[in-house]
Amino acid sequence: MAQAHVRHILVKDEAQCQLLMQEIQNGEDFGMLAFEHSLCPSKTKGGDLGDFSQGRMVKEFDEAVFSADVGSLCGPIKTEFGYHLFEVLHRF
Burial of 61 by CB count in 10 Å (0-12 exposed, 13-18 middle, 19+ buried)? Predict the structure, then answer.
């Protein structure tokens, strides 16, 4: 079964997610922004969700993670929890 190592930032609204994406694209540190803005407990680890198997996360997030290019910044992805900005660090 496919696995991925992902870091993400979870926020309440799409506009904030898009703003954070722009900040990262302009050179801001993903981990620091996750720590400062994410609603997920993973924020204490810079948004790092670690390794997980396909099918383990909510459908919208799972589909996006396992179809995104490794190393690309993706989002916003809307789920029942809010809006996600993520990066697939590696897949195996």
Answer: buried
- 31-89 pLDDT tens trace: 999 999 999 999 999 999 999 999 999 999 999 999 999 999 999 999 999 999 999 99
Number of domains in the chain: 1
Q: In this structure, what are the phi and psi dihedrals at residue 59, rounded to the nearest 5 degrees?
A: -50, -50
Domain of 39, CATH number, reads 3.10.50.40
| The three-state (H, E, C) secondary structure of 18-64, written as one string | HHHHHHHHCCCCHHHHHHHHCCCHHHHHCCEEEEEECCCCCHHHHHH
Burial class for 34, CB neighbours closer than 10 Å (0-12, 13-18, 19+) = buried
Given a contact cutoff of 8 angstroms between Cβ atoms, the answer to whether 92 and 6 are in contact is: no
